[in-house]
Amino acid sequence: MFAESAVVGSVGDIGRVNAATVVRSLLRDGPIARTEVAERTGLTRATVTRATAKLIDMGIVVEGEPIRSFGRPMIPIDVRAEDRVVVSIHVGVTLTRIGLVDVRGRILQERKRLHVTTEPAGLVDDVCQVAREMLAEHAPDAEVIGVGASIGGWVDTESGVVVRYTPLGWSDVPLVTMIAERLHLPVLFDHMVRGMALSEMMFGSARDVGDFLQIYVGDVLGAASVDAGIIRRGPRGAAGSIDHLPVSGESTRTCSCGRRHCAQWLVTDRAVRDDAVALGLAGAGVTMDDLVASDDDGVLGLLDERARLLGEAVGLLIDFENPSLLLLAGPQTRRPGFLEAFRSGLSVRSDHGGDLDLPVRIAGFGDSTPTPASAALCLDAYYRDPIGYLTALRAPTVPPQEASTG
Ligand SMILES: [Zn+2]
């Protein structure tokens, strides 16, 4: 895949390694002066100056307006963001989000497209057509860095295949190849929750934290475990499923595993919506946004109960992982009473979740969380080796779609 084609390793690539260090420093702290980059990275001033010249030449870094203080004017440098765009695609249960995100992770445009079909080729055709329209309309002059694509379920990052995504009935769908063939761009692909963990490390709540546990609860449920800045994927990318964690409630549905106590049929948005309707608390077609905004005691009781059950399930993971930080994201987590109910569940089923005073943060980027999460998959590859990435992207002899799918 594209990211692996741009691996930095040999002695001759040391300039690229240094350049990547400079760019990541700017991503974090820019705009700052070259001297400050040297101080923060430990590189010599000469190395920073040399790397910056190459980075400016390639359009990865820009100089800002000189700032006059005492003595000589200081010229700040920063990552070039305004005309560098990533296409973000997140395939959800009922709709696909298509976004244009700049290289600072800021959403420039976002569209939600209801699935016109659940058949993979038809769905990807439609989504890619929308992406092309958005690029033509909103970023006609931008350099498109690539595509970050994500979905829930079981995702094999290495082969670019959706192994299984039950809500759409997909199995063994080569999503990366399908998107690359249509958009002629490198496609970086992973489970949405792992993209979310990456976006939190690059742009969000986990910038200072090397190990944390990311949990997402929406129409799907998922976890990403990060240790020393590395996200665990495991063989064929199957890590992170927490669908069958047992909780103390009983669902009206029997899970595919034959039980009725599995987290996925009690705490996901789908399950909560269905149960709200079944209990007469809401009408058919109610959305999670409607439920979260409700002040009805019955609805609030249901949401509190499900937040508590999620806390129980996550408590089991906390005892196993002992993370430094727990990040929670998803529509339900934005409700004012959510965290208190969640913590009460956590204390029931975790031996040390309560004792260690574990920091728990509601993370994500609101309703748009899947968009920067998907874009982060591409941006992670870009920032690991920006010179190598852009050299491969711009190479006239190797079309990027071959580099991405080969
Ligand atoms: Zn189950």
Automatic annotation (TrEMBL):
Classification via InterPro entries: ATPase_NBD, ROK, WH-like_DNA-bd_sf, WH_DNA-bd_sf
Bilayer-spanning residue ranges: none
Alphabetized SUPFAM superfamilies for the sequence: Actin-like ATPase domain, Winged helix' DNA-binding domain
Domain of life: Bacteria
Signal peptide: none
Annotated Pfam families: HTH_24, ROK
Family: Belongs to the ROK (NagC/XylR) family.
Protein name: ROK family transcriptional regulator
Organism: Labedella endophytica
